[in-house]
Amino acid sequence: MLEPLLINGYAFWLLLGLVLLVSEFFAPGMVAVFFGIGALIVGVLTLVGLVDSLAVQLLLFALISVGTLFGLRQHFRRWLQGEETNAQNTNPDNIELTGKRVKVLTDFEQGTGHVQLNGAKWDAESSDVLKAGDSAWVLSHSGILLQVAATPPDA
């Protein structure tokens, strides 16, 4: 009684499916998960009585597993790993700072000083005379060095 259940019964397929799905966590490669999906589908079809024969179960397992592997693997990989569409937008140096208002923290001596932007202290350069406590606006930036002016860039 137990032997037929283990060979072609739904319990075997459901257990195999779960084992294959869990194995993907230990050896990720986006392969075992599709064979696990195939085994689970065959297990459910066997459970509801749509499939009885071991040969049909094996054939369905192979077709579903290989079909999902080739049909869905790239889609799942993109979904799980993400996809970078525009490298320029992810570069931290390309954050739009132009036109932002800053607070001058130190008097600018020889065209250099410090300003506060978004709660952080930045090194800055300016051709304008700026005193501590003044407001200034970002004209451009290069890395962590801001070019600031006493008037907004659009004024």
From TrEMBL:
Subcellular location: Membrane
Keyword Chloroplast: no
Main localization, broad class: membrane
Gene Ontology CC annotations of this record: plasma membrane
Membrane topology: Multi-pass membrane protein
Record carries keyword S-adenosyl-L-methionine: no
Domain of life the protein comes from: Bacteria
Keywords, comma-separated and alphabetical: Membrane, Transmembrane, Transmembrane helix
Spans through the membrane: 6-23, 30-48, 54-72
All copies of domain NfeD-like C-terminal, residue ranges: 96-148
Name of the featured protein: Peptidase
Species annotation: Kineobactrum sediminis
Lineage of producing organism: Bacteria, Pseudomonadati, Pseudomonadota, Gammaproteobacteria, Cellvibrionales
